[in-house]
């Protein structure tokens, strides 16, 4: 009882659009517990579409098509499917009526829209409440179900949720739920994490799979269950075990971010933070203010890009700048304390580093970054990072912001 | 001589990540003139990967794999391909040496990384300069070429551009070039732009196609040519016509951004800018410092999120804050002038607005944003924007930053 997602459209093969439909449908199938093992993209070409259908019929019992339902000559999904299964097309008066109504205010529907009213004999209309192209629900032969959707994401999503999901459930699809929880880690490489939780990874249910991206490491815990409550009951003990083993490196789960973890800790304590940024140019402030309600814990900051700004607005000692350089632990400490003092916040966080590609010296390579954190008691700690300069300026800046959030997070946790 | 893109990863089937790799590779193949007719996504399952390989071998001569090259047990691409083509795996000392070097500063590489050093006999290493997982270039039999890449987009892209493209060209792939130039516009809706350049859009070669996204409008000029020189000769007159018609709304082309346009104008004049940000929390500074060498024109700024920061660090009049509110033209003007004065820059730019979802009043809805620009002569201008609050906080903040850059850009252009 598995499904296959088939996206039709030459614009996908040209890379003109991102295939967000496949992601949406994949998430939906996962949450309905309908397994799917393959996704295919094919252009607006009847011969190739037929080849793809032939392959898909062999390996799936539910074929979900997006794209190729429009009024133009290169929209070929419906007629190609009809041809493949040798079913005649018939014009559906309900669709004609619907199109006439929809196009009434736009000067009437054009003859080319008439094509959209053709469906194979035996297929059911899958109504499109917001766009012109309807889809279909079709069982061309026993044990094979076909759903078609237009390529426009908003239309496809609404049609999926309003009509396809209830229909699938009524037909016995999606009885079981696949539920995933993603644990998120910072400061631990994927291979080290995988070794620490090797016992959990080796288990068959729930499955635990590590992956990495954007500098963070994740573990996905997946279960198959009757409902969400049962799923959570299965996941919870595994999550607890993993958190116990890994400790502080785990900063959250699912939708959590390092910024939301920090925001949560600050709000719990009714404390505020201010930032002093050099190489990140405002990226840390930007990250901390992405969350609604950030004014509760974020006061603001100083983007001290030029050295004179570090001196004039943050009170960094010009002698330290001269002797140690702007990218140094002592300047990071002075920036963090300076911004905490001048903005009267509980915490101050600073970033100074060499984002590159220029600015490196013999002793200070691109990727050298210092993070400072001024604590509520006036103490200041600093951390040195040597990030991979080879991955470019954006990467160094991204990791600098993330590391600053992580250093602050750990200080919040160890200084209750 | 066609290609197929095969993305391996259960996270794609679960919809956890968007398949941006497929889009990137599709664009690249299109620009190299290498046809590709199918894309396939398959999970981390050797049996299914083999089925996909068998199908792809029948319909393409270049198979491009992404994903499944990591150090963990569910990374199976390389060994499954070796198994499919019955080629033994061998450990490559060069990869071991490279991994040892890369992991030296992180406490050494772990035994699981050793797996990444295994390649089929006869395969060539496709080096990964920034991550751990190398790919391979492999001709398992005559007339079939396989390239493998890690799933991490940044690594895949760099490996593609640095090694795969030169290799493919050396092998006779990508003889004809499809060359596109994208003109970029701000402050003009797609429909208005399309009407202004209707004559150009009606032409067949070069083709001109409008599209929109992220708040900006674009025109893509596309030609098919023998080489880049010929392509540029065809594109240049069309571009000149369009720029003539559209004027100031065109801010650049291809890789240009509003930030790079501003940076260019400031550098031409040897002038500097400083920013004062409220609702964007540092996003404008972050954007202006994405470009290498931004210290030449960017001095820094003040993130004046809390009102007290606006008063204490920017000299905003507390009475104006009280009477007009923080989101007002007068406060925007004072912020812009304040940051210009205190950071001793030539230009000052400010943003104050209601990003939402909270903070709206009867007269000030979510999406109301004021931009201030302080000119070198001390004059200050402000602009009011009413952005769509329905599209959410991120959208309002994004458009606020972009509009601030655009207001500054236009002031730079009209005040030479």
UniProtKB/TrEMBL annotation, chains A, B:
What is the recorded name of this protein? CinA-like protein
Question: SUPFAM superfamilies per the record?
Answer: CinA-like, Molybdenum cofactor biosynthesis proteins
Q: Which SMART domains match?
A: MoCF_biosynth
Q: Which residues form the MoaB/Mog domain?
A: 4-171
Phylogenetic placement of the source organism: Bacteria, Bacillati, Cyanobacteriota, Cyanophyceae, Acaryochloridales
Q: Which family does it belong to?
A: Belongs to the CinA family.
Q: Which InterPro entries does this UniProt record tie to the protein? A: CinA, CinA-like_C, CinA_C, CinA_KH, Competence-induced_CinA, MoaB/Mog-like_dom_sf, MoaB/Mog_dom
């Amino acid at each position: 009882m598995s499904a296959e997602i088939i996206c039709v459209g030459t614009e996908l093969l040209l890379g003109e659009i991102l295939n967000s439909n496949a992601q949406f449908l994949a998430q939906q199938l996962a949450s309905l517990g309908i397994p799917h093992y393959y996704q295919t993209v094919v252009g607006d070409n009847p011969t190739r579409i037929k080849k793809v259908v032939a392959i898909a019929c062999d390996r799936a019992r539910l074929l979900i098509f997006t794209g190729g339902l429009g009024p133009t000559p290169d929209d070929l999904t419906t007629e190609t499917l009809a041809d493949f299964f040798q079913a005649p097309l018939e014009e559906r008066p309900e669709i004609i009526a619907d199109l006439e109504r929809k196009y009434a205010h736009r000067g009437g529907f054009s003859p080319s829209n008439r094509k959209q009213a053709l469906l194979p004999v035996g297929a059911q209309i899958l109504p499109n409440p917001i766009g012109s192209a309807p889809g279909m629900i079709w069982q061309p032969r026993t044990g094979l179900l076909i759903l078609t959707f237009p390529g426009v994401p908003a239309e496809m999503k609404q049609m999926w949720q309003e009509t396809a999901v209830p229909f699938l459930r009524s037909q016995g699809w999606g009885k079981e739920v696949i539920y995933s929880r993603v644990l998120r880690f910072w400061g631990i490489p994927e291979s080290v994490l995988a070794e620490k939780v090797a016992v959990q990874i080796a288990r068959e249910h729930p499955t635990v799979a590590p992956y990495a991206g954007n500098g963070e490491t994740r573990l996905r815990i997946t279960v198959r269950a009757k409902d969400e409550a049962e799923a959570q009951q299965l996941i919870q003990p595994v999550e607890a075990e993993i958190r116990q083993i890994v400790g502080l490196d785990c900063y959250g789960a699912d939708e959590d971010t390092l910024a939301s973890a920090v925001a949560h800790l600050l709000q719990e304590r009714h404390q505020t933070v201010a930032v002093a940024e050099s190489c990140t140019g405002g990226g840390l402030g930007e990250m901390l203010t992405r969350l609604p309600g950030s004014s509760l814990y974020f006061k603001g900051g100083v983007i001290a890009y030029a050295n004179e700004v570090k001196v004039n607005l943050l009170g960094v000692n010009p002698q330290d700048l001269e002797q140690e350089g702007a990218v140094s632990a002592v300047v990071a400490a002075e920036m963090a304390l300076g911004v905490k003092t001048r903005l009267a916040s509980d915490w101050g966080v600073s970033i100074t580093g060499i984002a590159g590609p220029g600015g490196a010296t013999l002793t200070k390579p691109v990727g050298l970054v210092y993070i400072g954190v001024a604590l509520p008691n006036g103490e200041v700690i600093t951390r040195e990072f040597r990030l991979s300069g080879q991955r470019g300026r954006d990467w160094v800046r991204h990791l600098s912001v993330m590391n600053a959030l992580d250093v602050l997070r750990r200080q919040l946790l160890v200084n209750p």
